[in-house]
Structure formats: structure tokens, C-alpha cells
Amino acid sequence: xxxxxxxxxxxxxxAESKSPxxxxxxxxxxxxxxxxxxxxxxxxxxxxxxxxxxxxxxAGSITSIIMxxxxxxxxxxxxxxxxxxxxxxxxTVPITGFANSIVSPAMEFKSxxxxxxxxxxxxxxxxxxxxxxxxxxxxxGVLYYLIK
Amino acid sequence: xxxxLMTYINAFIVGGIICSIGQVLIDRTKLTPARILVLFxxxxxxxxxxxxxxxxxxxGGAGATIPLTGFGYNLARGAFKxxxxxxxxxxxxxxxxAAAAGITAAIVFGYLASVAFTPKAKR
Lengths: 148, 123
Fold this sequence. Notes:
The complex is a heterodimer of chains A (148) and B (123). By secondary structure, chain A is an all-alpha fold. Chain A has one domain (2-108). Chain A has eight helices and no strands. Chain A is extended and about 65 Å long. Chain B has one domain (2-116). Chain B is built from six helices and no strands. In chain B, helix 2 runs parallel beside helix 5 and helix 5 (68-86) runs antiparallel to helix 6 (88-116).
């Protein structure tokens, strides 16, 4: 019998080593390739723009706009959240995920109206991101001014 | 031609690694996605402040700029640029100036999409 072959403790260790770790590994692989592919798409737009003679700086901004547009479009089509279920951080961490975090609650709370529903809920996640991102950029800017 | 291919491979690897770090954080620390995003953008600003993220961007291209750490990189780089131009005032104008395209695109397209689309019932 199985119980005789392994003590309870050994089995626990065995079970732990099998289930959560392999699930973590699986999730990492999924996040890696989906996140990687989203970045490849971004690289594609950047390269195309550069070939068209757009300068580096502008190419970056335009790429962001395109990626955000795509993130929002696929959220609207109910595709992005499906992708999120599969890819986890692979779809959350790229800028398309930031776009998703804006439109997803806005759509969901549309029934609460265009001001407190759409207008306010857009920033449920994007708000904190902007608050801390901008705060940090001011701190870095002031420090740079002082030590420059 | 080969150089172009390398930009894709590098973007894939660097972007993949950054997203994997996020996945490990989600699975191991139970941080919510909102906290992960805040952590990533702030880390991007700090790493750029320390001069580290610029090197990651040199290697990974869009693999480093497309993840939210790249948004932080943009904010910090903008702050540097405006401080060089306008002095201390630049610390207040640079970040948002550099991120303006992304923020505005997200608000405009986000608004239009939430008007046009209806969410599927939650499962």
C-alpha cells in the first residue's frame, strides 16, 4: 500500500514538491512567453516606425499609444481578460495590462453612470500607479537637481 | 537583417524575464496585481534614477520599455531631461510630460471603449 511506502511526512514533502512548485513553474513559463511576445509586438512597431524615419523618442511614444490601443481594444472584445486567466503577469505587467486595468473597471461600472461609474472607476488601479509613479519621478528629479 | 532579428529575440527574453518576476511575486507573495503594478512602476523610476534601467533598455529595447517598469523609466527620464532644461521646476514637469502620450491614450481609448463595449457577464 502507498501509505506504507512513504511516511506521512515524506508524502507531504513529496506532495508539496510536486503541486505548488510545478504550478509556479507552469505559470512562469506562461507569463514568460506571453509577456515576451507582447514585447516583441512592441519591438515590431518600434522597428517599423524607425524604418519610416521616425526618431527614436517619437517612435517610443507612438509604440506606447498603439500598444495601449490594442490592450483596450482586446479588453473591449473580452479577449484580454481571457488571456489574463492564462498568462497571469504576462498580460498584467506589459503596458497593455495597464490599459486593461483602466477600461475593464470602467466597462464594468458603466451602470453607475458616466461620472462616478466610467470616469471614476477608470482609475481604480491606474490611479495608484500614476500617484506612485509620479511621486517617485519627482523625488528622483529633485535628487538629480541637488547632486547634479 | 540579423540585427533586426536580434532586437526581437532580446525583447522576447528581457520582456519575458520581467513578466516572470511579476508572476513569481503574484504566486509567492500574494500581492494583488494592483500592488504589483505600483511596485513595477516605482521600481522602474528608482532603477532609472540609479542609472541601471537605461542599461536594461539598451539590451532589451521594447522588452524593457513595454513592461510597466518602462513606464517608470519614461517618467524618470523625463524628469532628468526637464531638470536639465528648467532646473528644479523640471522635477515637477518632466515625468508627466514624458508619459503624456501613454496617459492620454489610455484615458481617451479607455473612455471610448467603455462607452462602446459592454462587458461579458463575469464567470
